Every structure is written in structure tokens, then in C-alpha cells.
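ok so i was messing around last nite and threw this chain in just to see what happens. nothing serious, just curious
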Amino acid sequence: MIRTPDSFSIALDLALHEASVVHPFVGESLLSSDDPPQARPWAFYRDLGCVVDAVEPLGIWRGEEHLAIALKPLPEALPKGWRLAGLRQWFGLLPDDELAIAMRGGQLLQWARTHRFCGGCATPTEQVAGERARRCPVCKLASYPRISPAMMVLITRGRHLLLARGHQFPPGRYSALAGFLEAGETIEQAICREVREEVGVDIDGLRYFGSQSWPFPHSLMIAFRAEWAGGDIRVDPHELADAQWFEPDRLPQLPPPLSIARALIDSALNELGIRTDR
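result:
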């Protein structure tokens, strides 16, 4: 499961300079080389002809300053061995720690890009000194990076796992149930509601598993385990393409190892004495 390194420390007062390690984006696509994929100092990208449009300081890791930068559209074709790709396409290619920092940077650049103007009076916002915030100079409305909490739950029934397919999943892939919280809900209430809405079964024994930042575009996945308490699966076709009980030795294609969904499933399988490399 990917996460920002524990040794990473947030810093808000970093300025871009030649030695800054940068995570460069054009829109929602990250720029990197294929040989090897890794974050590099700003001087390297500047020499490629990249032009900065916006900067978000991230923090310090292994003694180096890391910043996310939004680039102006590249005027020419990229040199051989370089490419722009969405963060998902860099899974398993970029080192996990660097990918986690880039995922943080992508969220912050998206926030800055979508909060350039006040949501109350449409005045251009200003960066607040010493805070990760933008404030309207007229009505004083402050905006902070948006985080959208989402529940995830893996339901088990003895040795069976309840897995579901979203409409946008790659062919053959199944995962744990997931959904966003509504205003006024606790996480536990959201889990029970989503389970009833999506598959129609009852659950019991809800217990926390873990959480993961998921920058698509700004989610926080909060994962739980639960036990089946009754009812047959009734799939809501507006929510899911399919949902089934799976035996651990007859599993479908699972989510990628970097996701908390996979960690949640693997944890349940480990409890059953089963390891999987799917």
C-alpha cells in the first residue's frame, strides 16, 4: 500500500531553485523519463525547455527539498525516452516513495488550480503566508485543500469474500465495496448505507483496517472489515456492474498492490492462510 514516507516532513516555505527536486505536471499528467523513472532537480527540466506556471512546496525528504510544479504546455514533442502520463500509469514504474510524494503534489496543484477565484464573490484569491490556504482579499473566505473521505469495506462470510465490479473497472477486475460519505454521516453510517444500497446485505462486526490518500482527484480512502450478517446479494445496477461471493482459491483479478483495496483483500487472505500474487 503506497503512502508518503514517514521520514517526509511538510515544509510550506520552499522556493524553487536549481537543486529543488520537482514533480512536474502538465494538467493532471506527470512528466518523467522511462530510463529510469524518477524525480529530478529543477535544473534538469529547465534545460529541457520546461516553463513553470505554478509551484506548490511539498516538504523535505532525505535532506532534499521537494516541490510540485505545474508546467505551461510543452511547445514541442518530448525528447526520446520522456513522456507525460496520468499518475495511475506510473504505478509500479516510479519508486513508491517518490510516487507517493508526486501524488501529494498532484492533489495540491489541482486544489490551487481550482481555487484561483473566491467561491463566494469570484475575486482572485491570494496565498496565505505560512498556511496551506488561499484567501479572498475582499470577503475573507479561506479555502483549504479539499479532501473527500470515502469508505471502503471488505465483507467476509466464513472463507468467502464479497467482491464487486465498478462500471469503470478494467475487464475482469473486482474489489471491495467503496463509496463517498454524505454530509452529516459518520463513517460507520456511510458503510452501512453503501452496503445496503449497492448489494443489499446486512453486516456486523465492523472494524477499522487503515487509510490511504488517493489523489483521483482528492480522496481519503478509509477501509474497514465486516462480517456478513444476512441477506442475499441484490446488485444495484446503477452502482455496480456485478458483485459475487468468491472462494479464496477462485479469485478474480484484484486491484493493484499499491492500493489499500488490495492490502485489505490480502490481509483477509493472509488470515485464511492464503497468499496471492494476482
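not much to say yet. The radius of gyration is 21 Å.
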